[in-house]
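PROTEIN–LIGAND DATA SHEET

This sheet pairs a single protein chain with one bound small molecule, flavin mononucleotide, given as SMILES. Inputs appear in the order they were entered. The predicted three-dimensional arrangement of chain and ligand is reported afterwards as a token string under its own label.
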Amino acid sequence: MTRLADRLGLALPLLQAGMGAVAGPELCAAVSRAGAGGTLALYKEPPARAARLVREVAAATPRPFGVNVVPEVTGPATCLEQLRAVLPELPRGAFVTSFGLPDADVARAVRAAGHPLVIQVGTLAEADAALGLGAAVLVLQGTEAGGHLLGRLPGDRLLAEVRARHPHAVLAVAGGIATGGDLADAVARGADGAMAGTLFVPVAESTAHPTFKRRVVEAMADDTVITSLFRIGWPHRPHRVLHNSLTTTDQRAPATFIATTRVDGREHPIPRYSAAAPGNGTTGRVGEMAMYCGRSCTRVTDRHPAAVTVARMSQEYESAHRPRATSPGPSTNTTARKRLPKPIRIQER
Ligand SMILES: Cc1cc2nc3c(=O)[nH]c(=O)nc-3n(C[C@H](O)[C@H](O)[C@H](O)COP(=O)(O)O)c2cc1C
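PREDICTION REPORTED AS:
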């Protein structure tokens, strides 16, 4: 259907983003079974637990799936340890996604194990570097995206720049994708597919906290804000979140513990301004936590099983798709797209 789908063995050229506290084995396996690129978030998972989670996914889907690492959070050594634990558990055809550029050692380990390496980048220079590391697929993240932001350009502009420099690279866009029409538009603009995160936060198999799911479904794009507030545990990287009582005040509250998250029977305290998102094992002042969310939330409504969401995306994509060989055709989105790139606004507090 597209080079992305061919390269990763998917029925639909759509990757589900690895998302800490949201994308566990159930979501990953459900998206994979439905024919899209289900992805397990490894985030800060200890290697032994990461390997166990991968085994759970592998037992639950016969189709390709991915694992996601965040080297700038774990550091290169721990990232390599996570991969050494999970690579032997990955079935043939599984892929590895990295948020930002991984170390050369990490890239080599993935390639040596025979798995496609998918690298998410936010600038043209990072795209060049990712291809130099042997990435099979680049994910180009625009500033519409939910979560931590790798660059400062809207997705359209980044895609145009990278496509002009690398006409044969396999490119997916991240940010702004919530319907099959959005996906078809991205393909018409020169992408080979897309990655979506926010779309999958509210679905049944997501492990996001129920309040987080509800807020994503209710939110409009302008309820999201780019901030640097939630920096404990992941500093130096602006992030797009739903506004809350912390983002809407100039007063700084103390970074005391406001919640706990239970993982494998153990309680982990969460300070105010932590980068941790609320999962279904979180209790406390959940409303003050970082609820990562992209501007696509305006069109996100699905609380169904992921299979229903992926089937809807497929049907909409099929009916909206205009082959690139002809003309791109009119936009299938009702939402106006940016014509000129605007610098992003970051709350610096
Ligand atoms: C709740 C949430 C958590 C995220 N966590 C991660 C993560 O752990 N690893 C990662 O590579 N990207 C993460 N991202 C960013 C995604 O990779 C991607 O850039 C983003 O979801 C695309 O924009 P969208 O959310 O509007 O679809 C996260 C995004 C969200 C919304």
